[in-house]
Amino acid sequence: MVIKGLELSRRFSVEVVQPLVRKHFGDLPHTAARIGAGSEVLGFDTERSADHEWGPRLQLFVNHKAADISQMLSEHLPKTFLGYPTNFEGGDRIRSMTHTDGPVHHRVDVTSLDAWFGENLGFDPKAPITDDQWLTTSTQTLAEVTGGEVFHDGLNELTKARERLRWYPDHVWREILARHWRRIAKKEAFVGRCGEVGDEVGSAVVAARQVRLLMRLCLLMHRRYPPYAKWLGSAFAQLSMDIDFMSVLTASTWQERESHLAAAYTKVAELHNELKLTEPLDPSTGPYHERPFQVLRAERFADAL
Fold first, then answer.
1. Is residue 248 a contact partner of residue 266, using CB atoms and an 8 Å limit?
2. How far apart are the first and last CA of the chain?
3. Contact by Cβ (8 Å): 257, 195
4. Domain termination residue (choose one: 164, 192, 218)
5. pTM, whole model, 2 decimals?
6. 108 and 203, same structural domain?
7. How many beta carbons lie within 10 A of that of residue 240, not counting itself?
8. Which structural domain range is residue 299 located in?
9. Dihedral angle at the C-alpha atoms of 237, 242, 244, 245, nearest 10 degrees?
């Protein structure tokens, strides 16, 4: 990839879009940003990303004249920018860059900030954010709204709203961590129990579920919103943590799988202790009641939080 998508959007905004808006609409207050859906917003775009919903695109927030600005851009945008077409064609939601000799069907999404928040977030973060709003908004959505970049904030609202969404209030963060520990606790013994009855596939499926929850938990402990499945592993890799999840996922027997998972439990438990959100808890694993399956007893961490 010659240029990363976020840099392409930044230059497109600064060098083309904003000058056109000022030329045709004077000092009309506006905010320009690249946020929301798209791998480039999270910094995970590659050459593959350019096949759809990637290119010279951004959001332009205004309080009025949105339709007029969009039409002006369609008529006056250059056909290409840095070698990339500014025209997009395709379905209603999935569009790709393609050359045109006519008006540009651009991806400068001109709208109001209230409308964008309503469609993409479901509530107005400029108003007080309730616990229910925090707890029912996906971490992918929060990552999209707080990711990317604001290129110009002439409305003086988006930067403040993003800062309010930057991370959970402490009591909400604790609740979310506790929920993850409880979900881990519910299936801890099943890796061994499935294996004991000869169900290695079932054991592996349970282990993969536990790995996913542990990866999300590590990101949350580092105050990072976990992205959805496509980028979860990429985001976790950026933490540079010494946890061997691959051995859990590639183990051929339940005993080996359980052993690797127990080691992972301990390291994540130690990370919990390092946060000092609770009194230190024993990070070691042990038998599940009278059964010989190695578990962390993860509910202890939820209760402590």
1. no
2. 44
3. yes
4. 164
5. 0.92
6. no
7. 6
8. 170-304
9. -40
Where is the domain boundary, 110, 132, 164? 164
Domain count, the chain: 2
- pLDDT above 90 (res 32): yes
81 φ, ψ (degrees, to nearest 5): -145, 120
Judgement on whether residues 177 and 158 belong to the same structural domain of the protein: no
Residue 94: both structure tokens together = 């999935």
How far, in Å, CA of 46 to CA of 83, rounded?
17
Neighbours of 119 (CB within 10 A): 10
pLDDT of residue 145: 97
38-78, pLDDT tens digit by residue? 999 999 988 898 888 899 999 999 999 999 999 999 999 99
Report the distance separating Cα 138 and Cα 134, nearest Å.
9
Residues 81-96 pLDDT 10s: 999 999 999 876 678 9
> Residue 205 to residues 199, 239, 289, 293: CA-CA distances in angstroms?
10, 25, 23, 17
Same domain assignment for residues 12 and 156: yes
Question: In terms of domains, do 152 and 59 share one?
Answer: yes
